[in-house]
Amino acid sequence: QVQLVESGGGLVQPGESPTLSCASNKFTLHHFAMGWFRQVSGKEREGVSCISRHSGNTNYVDAVKGRFTISKDNAKLTVYLQLSNLKPEDTADYYCAPVMPGQGSCVMTPYFDNYWGQGTRVTVSS
User: Fold this and answer.
1) How open is the CA angle 108-109-114, to the nearest 5 degrees?
2) CB count, 10 Å around CB of 2?
3) How far is CA 75 from the centre of its chain?
4) Residue ranges of the alpha helices (H) in 1-126?
5) Residue 112 and residue 90: Cα distance in Å, rounded?
6) For the sheet containing 5-7, what is the strand order?
């Protein structure tokens, strides 16, 4: 069974570098590539980053390249998203989810149509 519990959000200033966590389980991390998505109220949820199941290859949406870093710790059963050089437009609810595999990598498309954790809200404000 897939398990997803996001945490680490909050009110952050543009110069801060918070790390979001997605606590999962062995089944989820063993079977799926994982991704982070974000959603602003009234807008579509968008893919932010993903990490492949085994190789650790990553992908990022252009808006966060060079600023966000995805990683995972299989021993801790957790997927991370470190945020840096934050901008007000990064304000959103952030979700992790299993994503579609790519050739040796991953695709920022949810594997399941409607399976999400509760999300964690990041508000960027000075």
Assistant:
1) 135
2) 15
3) 18
4) 26-31
5) 24
6) 5-7, 19-23, 78-83, 68-73
Task: Give residue-wise pLDDT tens across range 54-91.
Answer: 888 999 999 999 999 999 999 999 999 999 999 999 99
**Residue 39 CB-density burial (10 A; 0-12 exposed, 13-18 middle, 19+ buried):** middle
Cα atoms found within 13 Å of the Cα of residue 18, Cβ hemisphere only: 20
Q: How many Cα neighbours within 13 Å face the side chain of 105? A: 9
Alpha-carbon span 17 to 27, nearest angstrom: 30
The rounded percent of the chain whose pLDDT value lies above 90 is: 83
Q: Check if the beta carbon of residue 1 is closer than 8 Å to that of residue 58.
A: no
Query: Rounded mean pLDDT of the chain?
Result: 94
